[in-house]
Give the backbone structure.
Amino acid sequence: MSGVLVFVDHTRGDVSNISTEMIGLAGEIKQASPGAVRMVLIGAAVAAQTELFNLEPVDEILQVDSPAPEFDASEYQEVAESLVRRYRPSVVLVGHNANGMAYAGGLAVALGAGFCADIFALRREDTTWIATRSGFGSKLNVTMGFPGKSVIVLSVRAGSFKAPMGRGNAALITLPAVAPSVRHSWTHERFIDPPSEGVDISKSEFIMSIGRGVQDEKHVPRFAGLAERLGATLACSRPVADSGWLQKSRQVGLTGKPAASCKLYLAFGISGAVQHLWGMKHVETIIAVNTDHSAPIFDVATFGTTTDLFAIADSIDKALDAKRGA
Ligand SMILES: Cc1cc2nc3c(=O)[nH]c(=O)nc-3n(C[C@H](O)[C@H](O)[C@H](O)COP(=O)(O)OP(=O)(O)OC[C@H]3O[C@@H](n4cnc5c(N)ncnc54)[C@H](O)[C@@H]3O)c2cc1C
């Protein structure tokens, strides 16, 4: 068995970043162990977006017809099972999110495959794969091997791999829908959109994030205004969301969202607990403002200052005023 099958993750055709990030991982796998990289697109909603996945390491794009208008975990599992039996890949990649979690484990069991959820690194050692994920509430990194397994299923953490930039030369193959072998014991009622005021921090390239260091809810508008002036998306640590100072959708971290597309992360009064770092430590440029010089946020920061965060916010405001006046 060789090669990689990558399942494109989308909600009603809205493709998540993890889909192209998994192509980055597939490219790494291909280098370590040659074999075809195949992207799988299920459903009419993504049929027009095949070019999005025609990136350097991709050899084939398999477009699978589907009668289901909504994501259906049983259908994804059945399509995946039939494609694994047909193409015999050694690695199957699925996004680690609500969709992927709904079928990745079942798929691994049905195939008798090795399985690791929420991986953020993968390496080849001799003839086996070693995956890395977090353990014990993200306090430790855990590595996992798959002895005796010819195929493994991995669900991949968002923001862990870089999507390749180079265009590819992939062949497009259209496949018929897979007939369901089991009758569902449930039906899809309706799709509920998240509240329209909700932001998607995972898509922002510039995030300004506030933590408990801002001290009081009454200071939040001051930082919201600063974020707007800077052109940043306002985000926060968990205590800020838990206190209701900002919406949960703005929380970065393990139980919030990863800053998956972020290139610049400005952290005001955030200590840098492991659960928060989980969502942002990969960011290229991190600027930390924290009066405690031993705060763990400085372990991942590119630049940092121990100056009071209100003083820094004032200085930025003044600099922006001066720029506007100039
Ligand atoms: C299962 C689990 C899941 C979790 N998930 C998440 C998650 O998704 N996201 C998340 O963020 N947390 C998460 N947490 C909580 C996490 O462990 C921390 O408690 C939290 O991240 C701390 O938030 P904070 O940095 O804002 O607050 P604190 O840890 O209290 O840090 C505040 C910082 O502000 C600094 N400060 C104070 N005053 C000033 C000032 N005037 N100027 C400059 N700096 C100042 C302090 O030095 C301090 O370092 C989770 C915890 C658990 C157990």
Summary: The chain has eight helices and 17 strands. The radius of gyration is 22 Å. The helical segments are 18-32, 73-87, 98-111, 220-230, 238-242, 274-277, 297-300, 309-325. The pocket of flavin-adenine dinucleotide is lined by residues 137, 211-213, 237-239, 251-256, 269-271, 273, 275-276, 289-292, 295, 308-309 (CB under 6 Å).
